[in-house]
Amino acid sequence: MGYTYDEKGDYDKAIESYKKAVEINPKNDVVYKNMGYSYYKKCDYDKVIKSYKKGLEINFIDYRAYNNIGYTYHKKGDYDKAIESYQKSLKINPKNDKTYYNIGITYTKKGYYSKAIKSYYKSIKLNSKNYSAYINLFEIDLILKGQFNRILENEYIQFFKNDKSIFFKYETMKIVETIFNETTYNLSLDNWSKKYQSLSLNWDFNEIDEWIKSIDDKNKKDRLLKAVKVFKNHN
Predict the structure, then answer these.
(1) Domain range spanning residue 180?
(2) How far is residue 111's CA from residue 100's CA, in Å, rounded to a whole number?
(3) pLDDT confidence band for 146 (50 / 70 / 90)
(4) Is residue 235 part of a domain?
């Protein structure tokens, strides 16, 4: 019943059902995991963590639970605890590309770019189709060096050039790169907006925003701000 209520989006009733389930069988870690999901949908992050930890008392090798706890700590802004939880997850299962990707995001938030890069590389090595890991690497490369990693760029193009819903994130970063490096690309900002007008970018621009603030060239900065404003309208 709890799972069915989750599917319907009625998270309060889902939680009520899960609570009844653990009263009957307090040793079912899956119920605590599902309850954690319901609390997450309600943005009640402290109870999310509590639920997953209760599940881990029963099944202490559930790497997904540690991953989800890490993700929740990240949402709370507690990046150190997020990293700690991700590391526990990876210790149990060092072949989960999603956890490497998630810890890469948290390392980036902390400004630990070298650790973030290594994590994204591991994520891609385990799952070459993890397009978000490529994009985050492109962003870090741009912030640190002003250019993309060309080998990864070619791989990305090869894998995703025929998937419009994925490829437009690459072209977003490509426009940012060409503005910064004062080079050219075969898609203008206006044409990008027309080409992808039906798609939502769904992107956190915090790192790019901070990077743009640090640029001294006023003309370049103004052009980047204009471009990012267009991109944000697709969020």
Answers:
(1) 131-235
(2) 16
(3) confident
(4) yes
